[in-house]
Amino acid sequence: MLKLVLLLLLVNLFQSDERQAEREHMVVHQIQDRGVKDELTIEAMRKVDRHKLVPSEVRHLAYQDRPLPIGFGQTISQPYMVAYMTESIRPGENFKVLEIGTGSGYQAAVLAEIVAEVYTVEIVEDLGKRAANDLRDMGYQNIHFKIGDGYYGWQEHAPYDAIIVTAASEQVPPPLLKQLKDGGRMIIPVGSPFMTQQLVIVEKKGKRIRSRNLMPVRFVPFTRSK
């Protein structure tokens, strides 16, 4: 019996090390080699078990440079895009960040490794509940979950130091701008559904709103309540 327990522990250790090696390869070749330099972002990407946040049938693809289906017509973004968007908001350890589109929970987990509090909103109830269960099982206690229309953000906990939107909207939602702290940054894909969009960084300085395009992207559409 003792030998069996030891064998199982060795198998689990090997599997863990194997995924860690995949994660390190992902960080070096998909993220650092493509220009992401923020150390807090890089270390967060090293820590989060992406394979625990995707369906079992695509788990073997978890650390490849590609988005993956997570059900309900949604996807988990490729690791590079998660890292790039995280770096773009210039996250700080004392930040309170709003995420629109919980999805699998991967972006929320990466943020939670860096910032003090993450508030994440998902409109697809089953997807939001699954992500909440997975992230709690993984030990995250600084992520707060809400099921609802992300267009309206999460007013009760505003203002936010930064906002990340993980679905394409045809415009920047005004309620999100109002919930962004003075001096805060929001990153959001803007454009028509199922077409090439622009990843936009928005900066709020007093009554002035500045935005600029970062790169062309393809995100799933921003889902609204009917």
Could you please describe the fold and organization of this structure?
This protein is of the alpha/beta class and 226 residues long. It has one domain (2-217): Rossmann fold, CATH 3.40.50.150. The chain has 6 helices and 9 strands, in the order ααββαβαβαββαβββ. The protein has helices spanning 2-32, 39-47, 79-88, 106-112, 125-137, 174-179; strands at 68-71, 74-76, 96-100, 117-122, 143-147, 160-165, 180-190, 197-205, 208-217. The strands form 2 sheets. A 7-stranded mixed β-sheet has the order 5-4-3-6-7-8-9. It has a two-stranded antiparallel ribbon with strand order 1-2. A hairpin with a 6-residue loop joins strand 7 and strand 8 (197-205). Helix 1 (2-32) packs antiparallel against helix 2 (39-47), helix 1 packs across helix 3 and helix 2 (39-47) crosses helix 4. The chain is globular. The chain starts with a helix and ends in a 9-residue tail after the last strand. Mean pLDDT is 91; it is low at 4-15.
